[in-house]
Amino acid sequence: MDKMTIDEKTIGICSENIKQSALQSRAYKGREELIGQLCEECGELVVAAQKLRRVWSETTKISMDEAYMNLAEECADVLNAIEALEHINLIDMECVNRIRAHKAYRWKHRIVDGDWSE
After folding, report:
1. What does the DSSP assignment read for 97-112?
2. Of 23, 38, 16, which is closest to residue 82 (Cα–Cα)?
């Protein structure tokens, strides 16, 4: 699978585009539409992940490269939807990152140490 390289300027432009789209969507369609978009993108991510599992188990005809690209594309869509929610103050990424850190710690102990008590 080919890897794309993206510079910081491109990332900044992408983030600004997401911000403007989120603000316009909130103004014209409301926050419900942005939550709906997140739901749709999460569903598509689930489908892409399941397709990759089927590629690994050789129960589908799509290629490994196609499955990985589908997964990457849907991850990007979900991350964009999350960023859009942040731009209209529906989520606080500092709070999300604190929760992520705690969950990563628990995950490590469950996987590495075999501690499934929590």
Report:
1. HHHHHHHHHHHHHHHH
2. 38
CA 64/CA 49 separation, integer angstroms: 12
State pLDDT tens for residues 65-110: 999 999 999 999 999 999 889 888 889 999 999 999 999 998 888 8
At a CB cut-off of 8 Å and minimum separation 6, what does 31 contact? 88, 90
Task: Look up residue 78 and give its amino acid.
Answer: V
Euclidean distance between CA atoms 39 and 3, whole angstroms = 28
Location of structure tokens 């739901």: 39
What's the full length of the chain, in residues? Answer: 118
